[in-house]
C-alpha cells in the first residue's frame, strides 16, 4: 500500500490557482522532495498533507487512510493525522528546556509519565543531543536547535515526516553536514519523508525521488539521476543544474537522430532524441556544461558536433576551470580540468549528451542572461 497518496490536488487562494492538479504517490520509507522556485506551491502542498491547509479539490491518504477527500466530504484534523513536522523556523518554545519542548506534543497526546520519559530519551538519542536535555533553546547553536525540532517531530513516532526547508537557516558549511546527517538518520529510521526545498543540490543529494514544481504545476517526478540527466522540459533542465540553451530548426531526422541548424551560427548539430519532432520545427537544444569538451583549434577533430569558438572568460573554481566561449551571439559555459586554453578553440559534444525540446522558449531569466553577450 502506498504510504502517501496525493490525488488531483487543487488549491485556490481567493481566485488565484496555487495548486493545479498535483498528483503523486510516495512509497513507504521513501525520501521524497518537492523542489521548485519560491512561490510555486511546495509549502501549500505540504500543508495540505499536514492538515494546515484545506485543498479546494482532491484527496490525500496516508497508509490507505483518507485524510482529506473533497468529494466524499472527509477532513481529518491535523492533530489526528500523526505526522511529524519541522519548519524552517524550528518554532521551539523559548521558555522551555529541550526536554519540555519534547514533552509538549506527548502531553497533548496524553502519554503517561514513564512513556514520556522514555520517548524523550529515545528521540534525543536519535539526534545525538541527550546531553543537552536541560538547556534552553537560546543556549543552543542553530544546528542543535534544528536537531531538537527534529527530535520533537519524531518523539511521538509519526507515520510520516514532513520537512519544510529545515536546513535553510544554517550557514553553508553546517547545512552540508546537516544534510549528510539527516540523510543517514532518515535511512536508519526508514521513515517516509516529504521534504520541501528550493535548493537543487539539497534535493539531488538527499532524495530517493524528486517532484519538480513550477507555478502550481508538476513538471516532472523522478530519481535525482533521471531529473538531472533526462529533464522532461527545458525549464526543468534550467532549474536543476546549469545548462546551455540554443535555439534552432530541425533540418533533418532519421529515427532518433535529429539534425538541428542553430540560429546563432547556422552550424548544424546532431542530437539523438526521443519525442515527436517534425522537420522544420523550431526547437531548443540544451547541453550541460560538463558534457561539452574543449580542444585547441590546432588539434584536428573529426566527426559530428565540432563547433568553432573562442575563449571569452576563464575562471578557476578549485577543482576545475569554468570557461565562457563565444558561439555566434551566445556565451557557452563549459567546465574543463585544463586551465591553459585560450583564443580559438573547438567545442565538441556527443549527440547522446544533448537534449532536444520543442519550441524556442529560453527557460529562465538567468539562462537568458547567459546567452547574451554584451555588445
Ligand atoms: P513555495 O512553498 O513553493 O514557496 P507556497 O506554497 O508557500 O510556495 O505559495 C504558493 C503561492 O500561494 C504563492 O504565490 C503564495 O504567495 C500563495 N499563498 C501561500 N499561502 C497563502 C495564503 N495563506 N493566502 C494567500 N496566498 C497564499
UniProtKB/TrEMBL annotation:
Alphabetical list of Gene3D superfamilies matching this protein: 2.40.50.100, P-loop containing nucleotide triphosphate hydrolases
InterPro entries the UniProt entry points to: AAA+_ATPase (IPR003593), ABC_SmlMolc_Importer (IPR050093), ABC_transporter-like_ATP-bd (IPR003439), ABC_transporter-like_CS (IPR017871), Mo/tungstate-bd_C_term_dom (IPR008995), P-loop_NTPase (IPR027417), Transp-assoc_OB_typ2 (IPR013611)
Keywords: ATP-binding, Nucleotide-binding, Transport
EC number(s) reported in the record: 7.6.2.9
Entry keyword Transmembrane helix: no
Alphabetical list of SMART domains matching this protein: AAA
GO cellular component: ATP-binding cassette (ABC) transporter complex
Domain called ABC transporter: residue spans: 4-240
MF terms in GO: ABC-type quaternary ammonium compound transporting activity; ATP binding; ATP hydrolysis activity
Class of enzymatic activity (EC top level): translocase
SUPFAM superfamilies, A to Z: MOP-like, P-loop containing nucleoside triphosphate hydrolases
Name of the protein this chain belongs to: ABC-type quaternary amine transporter
Native organism: Cryobacterium tepidiphilum
